Amino acid sequence: MKAHFQTYQRCRCRHDTVGHFACGKAQYMTKSQLAENIIKSIEKNEWQQLQEGTLEVPVSEHNRTVLLELHQAGVDYTGEVCDKDVHKLSDAVYEFLKETWCSEPEAHKFVVLACLVLTFLKEEPMHPKDKVQYRVVGHDGIKEYFCPAKTDGVICNYCVAKKLEIQ
């Protein structure tokens, strides 16, 4: 089951809604709206099962933690995200999972939602650090991530990590 996200009608080019679609500009949603949509995409009983670790489909500990942290933190985020980017990443992850993990399609939703949280809300790499050994460099309160596994693939293009050049 794919998650669907609502956006608010606002075009950066100041057209009305009809003009918006004609000009091809993206719509934006607040990060708080995205967080709310992600939380709503998971049923109440699924949240309880995630909390208890009893979900009937496999969810990695990393993705489980990301989703539970969002659920506990709530929807107080600042900033906006482009709805086209949210949908493109969501579709890309679903397609990737359909090809590589076709045995558990019910679990795909949780992977996609965790990727959206990490990419657009937490602004962190999608993979757990111990999987790809990315490096974190911090200065002036800003973190930068460098990943040795980053490629020019569709999903990697959305990741906040930069390519780590290994010499």
What would you say about this model in short?
With 167 residues, this protein is an alpha+beta fold. It is built from seven helices and five strands; from the N terminus they run H-E-H-H-H-E-H-H-H-E-E-E.
Describe the structure.
This protein is of the alpha+beta class and 167 residues long. The protein has 2 domains: 1-123, no CATH class; 126-167, no CATH class. The protein is 46% helix and 11% strand. It contains 7 helices and 5 strands. The protein has helices spanning 17-23, 31-40, 44-52, 61-73, 83-100, 108-122, 129-132; strands spanning 28-30, 80-82, 135-139, 142-147, 162-163. The radius of gyration is 17 Å and the shape is globular.
Order of helices and strands: HEHHHEHHHEEE
The structural class is alpha+beta
Please give the domain count: 2
- Low-pLDDT runs of 5+ residues are 6-23
Seen as an oligomer or otherwise, the chain set is single chain
Residues in β-strands, percent: 5-15%
Record keyword descriptors for this entry.
167 residues; 5 strands; globular; alpha+beta; two-stranded antiparallel sheet; 7 helices; 2 domains; single chain; 3-stranded mixed sheet
Task: Lay out the secondary structure.
Blueprint: H1 17-23, E1 28-30, H2 31-40, H3 44-52, H4 61-73, E2 80-82, H5 83-100, H6 108-122, H7 129-132, E3 135-139, E4 142-147, E5 162-163
